[in-house]
Give the backbone structure.
Amino acid sequence: LFYLEDLNRFEKKKWLNMDRDARLEIPVDDITFKKLQKLKKENGIQYFNVRFSAGISNSLSINKGNMKRAHLSNGFGFSVQTLVDGENFSGYGFTVSNVITPEEIEKRFIESAKLAKFSAQYAEEKFKIKDLDPIKAKYIQPQKIDLLNTSQEEKIKTLLQQDLSARQFDKRIVNTNSVYSDSVTREIIYTSDDRLIDSTESYARMLIFAYSQEKQITQSARASVGLTGGFEVADMAKNIGGLSAQRAIEMLKSKPVKGGKYNVVIDPLLGGTFIHEAFGHACEADAVLEGQSQLEGKIGSRVGKDFINVFDDPTVEHSYGFVKYDSEGIEAKKVQLIKEGVLNAYMHSRETASRMNVEPTGNGRAQAYSSTPIVRMSNTILTGGNMNLEELLQDLKNGILCVNWNYGYTDPSVGNFMFKMERAWKIENGEKTQLLRDAALSGIMLEALDKITGLSKDIEFDDGTCGKSGQHVPVCSGGPYLRMNDVVIGGM
Amino acid sequence: MTETLDEINKNIVNQIDIACKKLGIISEIKDWEIFAGCKLSAGFKIEKGFMKRSSVSMHSGITFRFFGEQGKTGSAFVSRISNNIIDDCVDRAIKMMRHSLPNPEYVGLAKHTEKYPKVKTPWDPEIESIKMEDSVKLVQNFMGQMKRDPRIKSISGHFGYSDNRFNLLNSNNILLKDKQTSASLSAEIVMEEIIDGKKENSNGFDAQAYNYFKELEPDKIFNKAYQMACQGIRKTKIETKSYPVILTPGAVDKLFCEAIFEAIDAQAIYEKRSFLQNMLNKKIGSQKLTIKDNPWLKGGIATSSYDAEGTPTKPIDVIKEGVLKSFLHNVYTANLFKTESTGHATRSLSSPSIDIGPSNIIIEAGKSKKDELFSSVKEGVLIQYTHDQPNITTGEFSGLIATGNLINDGQITLGLQEAMIGTKLLDLYGKIEDISVEVEREGSSYVPFIKISDLLISGPK
C-alpha cells in the first residue's frame, strides 16, 4: 500500500500511532494513479481532482456532570471531481462513494466524467484549470500529545474538570454543557497534473457553556479553545470552565442595549469576526466571479484608511485556521488582502486562479472529501496600530465597548454585514459604566473600513467555524481593539 | 441506481442481523440501539444562470449506541459496511461505554408498540428513477431568467434530490425499516442598477424542499426571488423609532416557529436555558396566535408515523389562543418530566445524539386578506427576512433586517439599509394585531403574514 510504504520513511518515533491505526489506511497506490490518468484520456477530461479520505473523530458531551455523549466515528470514502473543457463550454462533474476499490474508483470516475459533459451542455463559461508542476508531498500535522494515543478516560477527565469548575464557580450557575471534540483525518489528493499530496490533519477543541440564574433572570456565556494539533489543547483549556461561568455570572447584571447609532470600540475577538465577515468573504474570488461580491473590479482601489492592513494567513502553526495543503493540493500561503488601505488581492482556488490568470493561493478548501473545494478563509487578521485600549476609550468619551462574538454573517453581493456580540459595556467619559447584552452591530462593507478611526497595538486571535454553501471549516480570526464612528447597533 | 441503493441496504440489514445476535450475549450492554442506512443524492449547481456542476453521491453508515450500568453510554459510527469493520465498530462503542461517566437521568430506550398511526413516510417513486437529464427543464428555467431583466447581474441556485433507506432497531424490540425521498430547489438573484450616478445592488432569494419532485414550483421560486430583488434595489436609511410592522411568512417562520420550537424543547427547559421554562399553560402571546405541530399532515415534509427513536407520533397543540400548551419530548426528557414522549426525537445518520425537533408546524390563519394588512399601514416596515437567531435563554432578539422595505400608504416602497430590529419575543408575540388568511409553506412550516402593532427599528438616519 502506498500509505504503509511511504510511512516507513517518516519519523516513526514521533508518529508512532499513525502507522498502527488501520482505520487511517487508504488502499490506493501508484497503479491507482496510473489508472486515473488512463481514465482521464479515455473520457476526454481536462482536469480531475480525486480525494481519498479516512478519518477518526471523537466527541464527548457532559451536561451537569452526566455523560450525554461518548462517540467515536470512522469515516471513509473518496470523491472524483472532473472538468470537461467542451467544444463550447466547460462543466464539472462530481461523484462520491464510501467504498474504495479499483472497480468503484473506475465506476465513479466514468460517472463523474459523464456528469461533467452533461454540465458543459448547459454551461456558459469556457475555461481550463492550468496545469502546475507535478509534486509528491506528505504532511502530518505535528501533535505534542497524540490524539489517538490519549486514552478516553484522560479526555473525559479533562472535560469533566472544566465542567466541574464551571458548576462550582458560583451557586447561581444552574447548568453547564461541556463539549470536547477531536479529529484526525488523512486525505490523499491526486490531480490530473500528477500532483500527489498525502496529508494528515488533526484538530481538537473544547467548549464550555455556562447558564446563570438569579430571580427570574437567566443568562448564558461560553468559552472555548481550539487548535490544529493534539491533546495539548487540554493545557490551553485549563481555565475555560471558570471563565465561561464568570462571564455568565457577570451577564446577570447586564441590561439590553438601546438600539441606535453609536461610536464604538470593538475588542480583538469581535474585531477578528468583523474583518472576517465585513471584508474577508467579499475577497473570496469565487464570489467575485459569480457576480456576488461588492469588491469585483476593485483591485488597486482604496477601501479604507492607509493604516488598514489585512491578511489571510494559513501558515500560523497550531492555529485553528492553519492549512498546510488545501483540498486541491496547493500549499497554502499568506495573502495580503488590503495593503495600506488599498485592495491588494483576492483569495483563490485553482479554478478562480486559472480564470483570473493568477497563481492559486491555497484557499480551495472542502469540509470533507464528500464536498467540492470552494474558496475559504483560514486565519484572517487585521494588523495593529499604535494606540492602547485606554487611549481608544478616552478618545471615545461616550459610546459602547463591544466584547466577544456570538456569531456573524455577511451578504457580499449587497455588502451588508452583521455580527452579534456576546456582551458590551456602556462607556461614559471614557469609563465602563453598565454591562449590556444582546447587542448586534451592522454596517455596509465599503463604508465600514473607512469608519475605523484608531487601532490598538495588541492583537488577539479566536477560533471559530465558518459556514459557506453548506460547508463548515475551522477558521481563526484576529485583530486589535478598533474604534469606529457612527455604527448602527440593534437593541431593545 | 435503485437496485444499487436497495442492494446496499440489503447488505446493511444482513450486517445488522449478525450484529444483533452478538449484542444479545454481551452482558455489560444493558440497552442497545442501531441506526443504519444509505442515501443516494444528486443535483446541480447553477452559477450566473447556467450550469456549473452536476453531482451524484452515495453514502451509507451504521451507528451503534450502547448503555451499560448506571446509564453509562458509548457509541460509534462507521461508514464502511463489512463484517470485520462492524465488529471493530461494536468493540469501540463498548470501550467508549466502559470508560464513560454514569448518567442517573437515563432510564431506557423507546419501547415496542403496535400502536403506530396509519401515516406513510413520503416516498416518491419518480425520484427513485430520475435521471439528471430529466431535470434539464429546471436548468432551462434558470437560463431563461437571465433574460428577464437587464438589471439582473447573476442568478445562482441549486437543485437536488435524495433517496434514503434507513433501519432502526433496539433492545426493546423496536424494528423499523423505511424509505424517504426529498427534492429541493433554490434561487438567488443579484440585481444591479445605476441610480443617481451610483451603482446599487440588491438580491432576492427563495427555496423549496419537498418530498415529491413534482411539488417543486420553479416559477414561484424565481418570481419571489425576482420580486424581492426588485423591491430592494432602491434603498433608504431610516431613523430609529417604533413602526407598525408586517412580517412575511419567511420572517414569521424565523421569529415565531424557529424561536418557539427551540424554546419548548424539553431538554432546554430542563436545563433552564429557555425563556419559556416557567410558561406552560400561561399566556405567551396574543389570543390570535394558535400553533400546532402535526406529524400526520398529508403532504408535509416531516410527515411520519414514528420519530427517530421509534416512538409513535401524534399531533399536538403548541399554543392555543396565546396560551402555551405543550413542550416537545423524546424518551429521555419524558423521563425527566415524568411524562410520555411526544414523539419529537430527531437524529442524523452519523450522529449518536438524539435531539428534539418539530414535525410540520402550522400557524393558524387569520381572517383578513394580506392586502388588508398592508392597506392598514400608513407608515411602517415590511420585514421579509432576517438571518439572525433569537437568544432563546433570555427571549430577546436583536438582528439585521436582511431584506425589508418601507411601507407607505399600504404600498411596499424603498428597501431598507442597515435597519435593525430589537424586541423581547414575548412582547412581539403579544403585539400581534392581525394575521392573514393566506398561508405559505416555508420548509416544514405553514405560515401566514402577521401584522405587529409596533416594533423598535434602529436605523442610521
About this structure: The radius of gyration of chain B is 25 Å. Chain B touches chain A through 91 residues (CB under 8 Å). Chain B has a mean pLDDT of 94.
